[in-house]
Amino acid sequence: MSSTDPKAKKQKTEEDDGIPLPDLSPVDFINLTSHSDAFGVDPIPVSWGHPNPMVRGPVICTIRHAAQRNAIGAHQGSYCVYTGLAVAAGKLNPEHMPDLKLTSPVFDIGPFPSWADPKKIASIDPFGHVVTDCYRSYLDKGYDIRPTIAVTKAHIDLPETREAMAAGRLKADGVVLLETGQSIVSKAAIEPVWYLPEVARRFGCSEAKLRQSIFRMTNGMYPELITRPDLKIFLPPIGGLTIYIWGDPDTIPDEDIPLTCRVHDECNGSDVFGSDICTCRPYMTHAIEECIKTAQAGGCGIVVYFRKEGRSLGEVTKYLVYNTRKRQEGGDSAEKYFNCTEQVAGVQDTRFQALMPDPLHFLGVTKIHNFISMSDMKYNAIVNTGIKIENRIEIPPELVPADAQVEITAKVFHGYNSSSTVTTQDMKDTKGREYAYEQPKEKQAGEYIVEDK
Ligand SMILES: [Zn+2]
């Protein structure tokens, strides 16, 4: 063989860096994942938690590498189905390789020691924002490896921030907060990447039990959870999270520099549309105000926003619970607040905070000076992973909407951290707004026949 023989050259490249050549599968080939020997014969090895990203291995979850793919699921979380629609509609070439050359982070995050500790990070890929740096040699060979984290900056504009300025609580400094009321943030969007053995450990079950439960409750959406116990990584079809940072992110790991933090779970009705049945938006905007103050004092403020709508039960379930709360005998009351969710969903809460601290460890957080939350579940989850919390800050009472007294009273009674105390009598006495909803009237299916005009 001469040295110009392309085959010899390819062989040499492979030997030099130990990276096999990509096995590019045809994109129109249908792989049934229900048989263990049908595909994925040669997944790229992953050593989760290894400090060297090349030894750790890239997360490969794209459709181009049927034989070498090492993760179950699909990129883009719940939006993965839309890419299927786009291909079906002829709008997306399934062979499209993303052009990532201008996409790299606009500020640095890490690496931190926590990145190499599965007990600290098991639900996101800590190298997910730097795949073009860490896995350049794979990308150059033609592998389709996607970032699961994107890091950018923004100006954000909230009426509550302008109100805080008008009231004299916040002052523009031209750096963190502008005269216009806009504040300047660094932010990161993160898609979930689960390392199943550690996720199972945190939930106190076996990995097999975890895999079986997800398989069953998604109607068998991912057969590989059962057929491929050797594949340890799962990109679940769920919402991800966004990190918002005020101040210099480089100060985050320094325990001597103040850090303010809120971990917020999505509540679209309140967060975006201002529904007053809960404290979600007021809590979030109060946290942002505190984050801005901390950043102006030379520290950093972080809001981690999880897409866990309706305690991860979803908005349909949430509204069903609202109707139950308002219609139940005696009306909406603090006493029955948690019961109503359980009555409808069978469970009070599916947010399970066990994976929640991971983005904090991704940022290198080891100490939070001001934790803007009353939730004991969140507090315990964070301190149990080794992060210290100095002060716990509850929402100022004047920010609680009238109709949200039911929620806050029930939460404080059930152990949420607060300076106020709630008695059983308060629980009985705290009532929500009356909507005078009619009791459900049974109708026949025939009454819903759509008339043909
Ligand atoms: Zn809410």
User: What pattern of helices and strands is seen along the backbone?
Assistant: HHEHHHEHEEHHHEEEHHEHHHHEHEHH
Strand content: 5-15%
Give the radius of gyration: 25 Å
Helix content percent band: 25-40%
The unreliable regions are none
Report the mean per-residue pLDDT as an integer: 92
Gross morphology is globular
Q: Report the total helices.
A: 18
End-to-end Cα distance: 79 Å
Biased composition (Basic and acidic residues): 1-13
Domain GTP cyclohydrolase N-terminal: 30-216
Domain GTP cyclohydrolase II: 250-393
Region (Disordered): 1-23
Structure commentary:
It is a single chain. The protein is of the alpha/beta class and 453 residues long. The protein has a domain of 177 residues. Helices cover 31% and strands 13% of the residues. The chain is built from 18 helices and ten strands. The strands form two sheets. Strands 2-3-6-8-7-9-10 form a seven-stranded mixed beta sheet, with helices on both faces. A three-stranded mixed beta sheet has the order 1-5-4. α16 links the parallel β9 and β10. α7 crosses α8. The longest helix has 17 residues. It binds zinc ion. Zinc ion binds next to loops.
Short account of what is shown:
The chain is an alpha/beta fold. It has helices at residues 6-17, 53-56, 80-88, 131-134, 136-140, 159-166, 196-202, 207-217, 224-227, 268-271, 280-296, 309-312, 315-327, 337-345, 358-362, 376-383, 405-413, 424-429, and strands spanning 71-73, 149-157, 182-190, 194-195, 233-235, 241-247, 259-265, 300-306, 367-372, 388-393.
